[in-house]
């Protein structure tokens, strides 16, 4: 009976968190492959401006959005190095993510912005406003926002090709992600800021959980990507960058945590 109750409660969690694909819970991660972001193609969203800006190997803007990715497509388009996260203060950051929301599609999330409120792994009380610039397909059954921050394993060899490297600086020892802040100093100068962020602000946390809700994109992010959707005015801006998490975020985080803990307790009380 307890197992059945847990299943019912988890189903309730799923319904509450679905909220028309605009709000919910999920997990975050880190990635950086130097490749052309998936949301840099013209057909991936309803653009008011243009898709996510891409760059040439020398990091100068590439204005032809039909150019293929330098990762396995024979093209010359890379991610622009300014699409790294940065901290505004100890509890608030901006960034760009590789996004996947089950039941939605790239046309829904590409260049959409989301407020993330972290729930665990030492990041409680911290939040980000992120713009979905890429798409992640690691696990299509879960909502994932992968923050683009240098220092991860370069699966596509994009960074190695871009910087004519054997990968040592990007992969760490034996192909692993970088594990300590000082390792960031081995990266090209252009990638060090985002790598330091992952240790200084994100605490190199392993896939922390968060709540998310779609918000109107701030100029701080759209100035970087140049990408603005034509449905932006349907959404409210987030609270100020120096504010505590919104009442929505606090209540939603509390509800998320309470429901998950209750489901877990039922599952173990067989």
From TrEMBL:
<dbReference type="InterPro" id="IPR052288">
    <property type="entry name" value="GH45_Enzymes"/>
</dbReference>
<comment type="similarity">
    <text>Belongs to the glycosyl hydrolase 45 (cellulase K) family.</text>
</comment>
<keyword id="KW-0378">Hydrolase</keyword>
<dbReference type="InterPro" id="IPR000334">
    <property type="entry name" value="Glyco_hydro_45"/>
</dbReference>
<dbReference type="InterPro" id="IPR036908">
    <property type="entry name" value="RlpA-like_sf"/>
</dbReference>
<dbReference type="GO" id="GO:0008810">
    <property type="term" value="F:cellulase activity"/>
</dbReference>
<dbReference type="GO" id="GO:0030245">
    <property type="term" value="P:cellulose catabolic process"/>
</dbReference>
<keyword id="KW-0732">Signal</keyword>
<feature type="domain" description="Glycosyl hydrolases family 45 active site">
    <location>
        <begin position="26"/>
        <end position="227"/>
    </location>
</feature>
<feature type="signal peptide">
    <location>
        <begin position="1"/>
        <end position="18"/>
    </location>
</feature>
<keyword id="KW-0326">Glycosidase</keyword>
<keyword id="KW-0624">Polysaccharide degradation</keyword>
<keyword id="KW-0119">Carbohydrate metabolism</keyword>
<keyword id="KW-0136">Cellulose degradation</keyword>
<dbReference type="Pfam" id="PF02015">
    <property type="entry name" value="Glyco_hydro_45"/>
</dbReference>
<protein>
    <recommendedName>
        <fullName>cellulase</fullName>
        <ecNumber>3.2.1.4</ecNumber>
    </recommendedName>
</protein>
